[in-house]
Design a protein that fits this description.
16 strands, 278 residues, six-stranded mixed beta sheet
């Protein structure tokens, strides 16, 4: 099996116009594929980043029209396309799922992950947000089988919970996906160090496609999409405040090499911390 994988992180500046957002995503996915990428990741809320009042109109079933459209694109480009996240309908009135979707090169949805950790924070004078008012949390960890690698799925605020990424890695993930619409204020303080930490502590590759810029409604995101190696080395980082495409070639054998050098999985002491809640 080939040990090299060309990946892309597509950075978007999405807003409240789904048609424009989708058209931009399609254009940048094509650009990534033209550079050889066969795994292409979009950011969180890639097709709608706007007021909650319109969520009902934007949310879809999965599979649905949007996943079908990107399935056709993935099939045409012979690539695995990761739809960072989108609003999925739920049975709970007034609430939705924030759902990450993988479509493979046959055009089929092969994995879905519903964001588990919701962005409920209160930093006085800076950021106040309660995502749980309109999003229902998922309750499953997902490791997707992709050609040549196993993908641990997560979304944005999940990044702050290292135990989740350890569990994904122990379930076999060699690449960790972190599509995000990371807040501009907390992003400046924490984004890069957290993304690199998730790679280092699990000796895994990380692809973190992000939203960038400020929407017309004032939603400000940090950008700085990243591709990071198992040693914490930054293989790609966007410095743009707008749309961008990062492409990197990964040596998948490096995961096993680094894990054998510092075998953090086998050197753990679960007898000391069988449950962090005890």
């Amino acid at each position: 099996m080939p040990s090299q994988l060309v990946v892309a992180a597509v950075q978007l500046s999405s807003g409240s116009d789904p048609e424009r957002n989708v058209a931009t995503a399609v254009e940048l996915i094509r650009r990534a594929a033209s550079q050889g990428a066969t795994y292409i990741q979009l950011p969180e809320y890639f097709n709608y980043l706007g007021p909650v009042v319109h969520y009902q109109k934007v949310a879809e079933s999965i599979p649905g029209p949007t996943t079908n459209r990107f399935g056709e694109l993935a099939k045409e480009l012979r690539a695995t396309v990761h739809l960072g996240s989108m609003l999925e309908t739920s049975l709970e009135p007034g609430k939705f799922f924030n759902t990450s979707v993988i479509v493979d090169s046959s055009g089929q949805v092969v994995a879905t992950y519903r964001k588990a950790h919701l962005f409920d924070i209160d930093v006085p004078g800076e950021v106040v947000m309660k995502e749980s008012d309109f999003i229902t949390a998922g309750d499953q960890l997902i490791v997707a089988e992709c050609p040549g690698f196993r993908l641990g799925m997560s979304v944005c605020f999940d990044l702050r919970f290292p135990e989740m990424y350890r569990a994904l890695s122990m379930k076999g993930a060699t690449l960790l996906a972190i599509p995000a619409a990371f807040n501009a204020i907390t992003g400046r303080a924490h984004w890069e160090v957290l993304v690199r930490a998730r790679a280092i502590e699990n000796h895994a590759f990380v692809v973190a496609a992000a939203q960038a810029g400020t929407t017309l409604e004032g939603i400000a995101t940090f950008g700085h999409s990243l591709i990071v190696g198992p040693w914490g080395d930054v293989l790609g980082e966007s410095r743009s405040d707008n749309e961008d495409v990062l492409v990197a070639t990964l040596d998948l054998d490096e995961v096993d090499r680094r894990r054998s050098q510092i075998d953090v999985f086998h050197l753990r002491r679960p007898d000391l911390y069988p449950s962090l809640d005890d």
